[in-house]
Here is the input.
Amino acid sequence: MTRLIDTIAIIAAILAIWLGLYAYAGDVAITSPWRTFAFAAELFCRRSFWDNVGATIAAFAMALLISAVAGVAFGLALGMRRFAGEVAEPVLGALYTIPKVTLYPVMLLIFGLGLSAKVAFGVIHGIIPVILFTLAAVKNVQPVLLRTARVLRLGPTETALSVLAPAVAPEIITGLRVGFALTLLGVLIGEMFASQRGLGYLIINGIEVHDVRMTTTVTLIVIVFAVAANGLMLALDRRAHRTSQM
Amino acid sequence: MTRSRRIVWTRIALVAGAVGGIELMCRLEVIKPLTMIAPSQMALELGRMIATGEIIAPAAYTFMEVGAAFVVSIVAGGALGALVHALPRLRRAVDPLLASWYAVPFFVFYPLLIALFGLNALPLIAIGVIFAAPAMMLSTLAGLDLVPRVLRKVARAHRLSRLQEARLITFPSAAPYLFTGLKLAFAYSLIGIIAGEFILSSGGLGYGISYAYESFENRTMYALMLFVLLIATGVNGLLHTWDGRLARRRGIT
Amino acid sequence: MLRGVTRIYPGATPVHALGPLDLDLARGEFFSVVGPSGCGKSTLLDVLAGLSRPTAGAVSFEGSPVRGEVPDGIGVVFQEDASFPWLTVRDNIAFGLRRAGTEPGDIARRVTYAIGFMGLDDFADAYPAQLSGGMRQRVCIARTLVLQPRLILLDEPFGALDQQTRLLMGDELLRLWRETGATVLLITHALDEAALLSDRVGVMSARPGRFIDFVSTGWARGRDSRIASDPGFGAITARLWAALRPESIKAMGRQV
Here is the structure.
């Protein structure tokens, strides 16, 4: 019960800040909450809006798939090969902290404009945390678990499926959650530079033509989606960690 | 050769190999010069820009912004972290907010911030703080959480005042985690501000890259990109090494 | 002349953890407390030290009441590792003295003595992270003893150590007790340890903890672990277990 009250309180606080900003800066900076909600309802009826949503989701899904699959694969490989993992980890860590915006021009020059650039942006943002978390998960598997598997005379596949997979799953899920958010970020940024379609494009276009209402509304929709998705993944993350010892 | 040395050398070889590979591909025009110039040329151009002092103005602008965002983030993040830690009810309420913070694509606030603060450094510093402060906050919370409860008892057994306890026990105990927060705050400030400069700004290194890109001035663009890369890797690397050293001395894995 | 006397009538917490019970400690005696797990032994120590207040009853130390604050002259060694990981061994031990504003020369002398006494010479400038659990516990003991407390409370200080190390640490504890002339209260779950080291042993019941028996051992002051071979030792341990066994069974049944 108190959980609900707290959530409502936070949302109320955010709305209050929003109204405050609106009162201070006016229509040239931000649209009022009420008008935003109204416009959102209007947008949801527009075909063109859903076209843009579709474009974003298509790019996002592809980028997420690549980030997740390649990320987990690399993470597993580097985690299992101790030496390679130790060599690569700091390099990956360094790549993680580089402002990836500095790579955008390169990406655009390589991939041109359009879907592949968007997907590329998403992948360079999302793949690294997935790799790092997976790597850490594999590295931290307690040796005693593997010894137990040997004592029980489990074959390699059985060991992988019934002992290793559950042991590394929780941290991999955390990595995927972080990767999810970052991939979304990357795709949206990609749409800002490399596309004429998608939610990111709607935002940057809104900025350029001073359509404040559009910018505010699409921003809100994106945020709500991001937070909701993250919330879902958090719940998944927590459940996965409930039984782990970490 | 010891294992750790082998690891370091392999890493150097890996990076050198990658750079060398790119260099080769550029020279052989497998990568077209319009797409990317050779790393050696990037370095040369950067050297020239440093020598002529061309790079000083944008670099100073960016560093000023990053510095400001960094300082505000660690002070605000640390203070808020301590506050939230002391008030469990507030913490429970704020927890979901913090957990979703980094899922929000913050660049969407740029236009709003520009409309609020004008087209100067303030919106960018604000974005840097929005990005970096929560990381500091989370690290502070973790550090305070992990002060062993027994040390609180030791403080009382030595009859320390609350201020003494905070200064002599709580702070040193949480220090490694606070330093991690510092490290993250720097990285995020840099990322947020460079990204902001790139997207919507009129000054700084990020803007320089964006401008060069749109003017088809590849040499300048890549030189600046290299500069940002070196600064980011250099400073973050240094902070990371200190962080590791601090943690190891304390026995934190 | 000071008398390290305490009298306790602690009461219940929302979980009725302790008491009501009475306890008098004679000055300079080595007193152990044994009891089944969860019987409130640690709570007893907390109340005695002034770290927590009893719900009912009074605690006094050297004639003055203990009220929510740790009095001067009491030292505590906790069950968990309480060494400060950010200080070297030397700085750890000097911590309390520095806080008390002792002369630097005096500090150096006393710290060096404590380091020697506890056998930490080779590790004086190391950090706790580099030491084993037993050594860290020694650091904590040294940190306490260097303040020359008149009452030393120890809460299962050797819990994490192997049996052989425990026996040797027990000998060191006896040495410390003799040299400082302090009153010692040791909480332990190991009956043999209690029987070996103490002048008197208090047996606690299962939760809520009360004293159900006091056993005097009658050992000579200059004892060490070799009294394990004394026939009286077996008798004492047996008597402790006879009193403790039904309580232990009760406590175990409760643990789900």
